[in-house]
Amino acid sequence: MKEYKSGFVTIIGRPNVGKSTLMNHLIGQKIAITSNKAQTTRNRIQTVYTGEQGQIVFLDTPGINRAKNKLGEYMLSAAENTLKEVDVILWLVEPTTFIGAGERYIIEKLQRIKTPVILVVNKVDTVAKEEVFKAIDTYKEVYDFKEIVPVSALRNQNTDELLTTIFQYLDEGPQYYDEDTITDQPERAIVAEMIREKALRSLDKEVPHGIAVVIDRMKDREGGNIVDIDATIICERDSHKGIIIGKQGAMLKKIGTQARIDMENLLDTKVNLKLWVKVKKDWRDSEFLLKNYGYQSEER
Questions:
Q1: Do 149 and 231 fall within a single domain?
Q2: Which domain does 256 fall in, by range?
Q3: What are phi and psi of 206, to 5 degrees?
Q4: In this structure, what is the dihedral angle of CA atoms 200, 206, 210, 215, given to the nearest 10 degrees?
Q5: DSSP secondary structure string for all residues of the chain
Q6: Does a structural domain hold residue 176?
Q7: Looking at the 3D structure of the chain, how many domains does it have?
Q8: 260 shares a domain with 140
Q9: Per the domain annotation, does 32 fall within a domain?
């Protein structure tokens, strides 16, 4: 009988390198939000892949970069604590020969731990093959990786090969979650993140870093196939509130409409979504507000 393997795998890398996109493809469903802006992933999200070979619990962590405020410190400690706890680390990089300060900071962290590291060169569909080979050679010189796997998370290229490679480094183990479990995140948390994703994608660069989303109410309507969801987008400045609402409410409506479509796919039912916007100045530097908005620092 074939042995059943299981274990915990974290995906690390600079912001915007495609970590959440890769995780969504590996598990076959959208759980982690994606955008081309930094700080898209703020909490540690667990998702689960279950196949014939076994089960992999993926941890998608916030991007590792130096902290600028309390939210940044929280995100950094969430990412760094994970490195010691998992069985395998996937380090996602772009296909370039330039190793910047962000990558060197990650190398510094990896050199302090014994966990096997697989280098995943993402976005290989965007450059010529020669460039991919050059990138691989460059990274080989700076760290002793167990494996190097080129993929395109967006196009879902070579992701099966990546799963096979991960299982090589996992031991025989139990099935931690039922076969139909794909995440440990409560629905309220995923719904809040869907709203934040649409805001990230739609708003000017300086606004998204300063927003959080709180679900005020999420309730099945009696006798009907519909869920009522009330949510508040928190921002740091009055000027940002105006941008989020938009001219005659157009921006808020756009964010709400796009988020509702994702929610209906997730919950498999109709959704009635109502959005509000509130200003809480400097919430990213307030321990109290960070905890209130779900950024709970884990005691270790």
A1: no
A2: 187-292
A3: -75, -15
A4: -30
A5: -PPPEEEEEEEE-STTSSHHHHHHHHHTS--S---SSTT---S-EEEEEE-SSEEEEEEEPPP-----SHHHHHHHHHHHHHHHH-SEEEEEE-S-S---HHHHHHHHHHTT--S-EEEEE--GGGS-HHHHHHHHHHHHTT---SEEEE-BTTTTBSHHHHHHHHHHT--B----S-TT--BSS-HHHHHHHHHHHHHHHHS-TTTGGG-EEEEEEEEEPTTSSEEEEEEEEEES-HHHHHHHH-GGGHHHHHHHHHHHHHHHHHHTSEEEEEEEEEE-TTGGG-HHHHHHTT-PPPP-
A6: no
A7: 2
A8: no
A9: yes
Lowest mean pLDDT among 50-59, 207-216, 244-253: 207-216
pTM of the model: 0.62
The answer to whether the beta carbons of residues 267 and 190 sit under 8 Å apart is no
Question: Cα separation of 266 and 194, whole Å?
Answer: 10
> Do residues 56 and 137 share a domain?
yes
pLDDT digits (tens, 9 = 90+) for 87-142: 999 999 999 999 988 888 889 888 888 899 999 999 999 999 999 999 999 999 99
155-202 pLDDT, tens digit per residue, is: 989 999 999 999 999 999 998 888 877 776 677 888 888 898 888 888
Residue 174 falls within a domain, yes or no? no
> Do residues 61 and 191 share a domain?
no
Q: Residue 282: which CATH number? A: 3.30.300.20
Give the strand pairing for 45-50 and 5-12: unpaired
Contact 200, 35 (CB under 8 A): yes
Contact residues for 56 (Cβ-Cβ < 8 A; gap 6+): 6, 7, 8, 9, 26, 48, 49, 163, 166, 167, 170
CB atoms within 10 A of CB 216: 10
